Amino acid sequence: MRTYAGKYVDDNAVAANGFAASVKEEGFILDDELLALALKDERKYYPAEGEVAATAVALDFSQDEFAPDANAPKYVPSPTFAQKMLRADEIIQDRYDELKNYALRFKKLKTRISKKFDSINQGRLQFVKLSVAGKTLKLYLNMDIATTDPKFHCKDMSDKKTYVTVPVLLRVKSGRAMRYAKILIDQCAAQHGLKENPKFMEVDAIGMIEQFLYGGGEEEETAETVETADTVETAETPVEE
């Protein structure tokens, strides 16, 4: 008895053991019939390009809805922080506005909107960053995770290069988390010696987002710096994101 591959099977071994226990090679002639059979299998499992299209038509996979759009962009960039914030619901926007103003009430702070964050800095000191993901507002603080209360459930992000200067992450998804965020902002300010600015006037955080996106004349990735009332008006090197 031969197998398809042309091997010889010992029938006596099969009868004795119930399976092909002994197989030995035996030469055979590759005739046209065997070659045609092998070619048929090859076309079945590895069709040529022209045969792929024919198969797609036969299986009804070549309809217009499956055809690639020649005018479609090859790369669709992810939305920026500003775009995501404007699309966020009113609760997220209110929390963002409240936390931004709470953090900005210290002296000599600047806010800077970039592709991924709204950063609040004092000169070269990165104080806090705000970002948004879905229905969660994220607060990053420049402090040691060991100094935070475990009940706040903060996350240590110091192993990531982007957050090495603001390694403490608090996810703000509730009123309780908002209270925790304000406590952490105060603790972070105290650790860096920041003083409250009695002349501070609240800003319209969402209005600043709209100005950043639609104000015109903004060709850079970051919005113009907005300073608190007590900021010294001197040129400073921008903080890298």
Overall description:
With about 240 residues, this protein is an alpha+beta fold. About 35% of the residues lie in helices and about 15% in strands. It has a seven-stranded antiparallel sheet with strand order 7-8-6-5-4-3-9. Helix 4 (about 80-85) packs across helix 7 (about 205-215). The longest helix is centred in the last third of the chain and has 17 residues, at about 175-190. It is elongated, with a radius of gyration of 33 Å. About 20% of the residues are buried.
Query: What is the succession of H and E elements?
Result: EHEHHHHEEEEEEHHE
What's the Cα radius of gyration? 33 Å
Contiguous uncertain segments of 5+ residues: 1-5, 21-25, 217-241
Please outline the major beta sheet.
Answer: 7 strands, antiparallel
Inertia-based shape: elongated
Helix coverage percent: 25-40%
Mean pLDDT: 77
Structural class by SSE content:
alpha+beta
Distance between the termini: 73 Å
What is the spatial order of strands in the main beta sheet?
Answer: 7-8-6-5-4-3-9
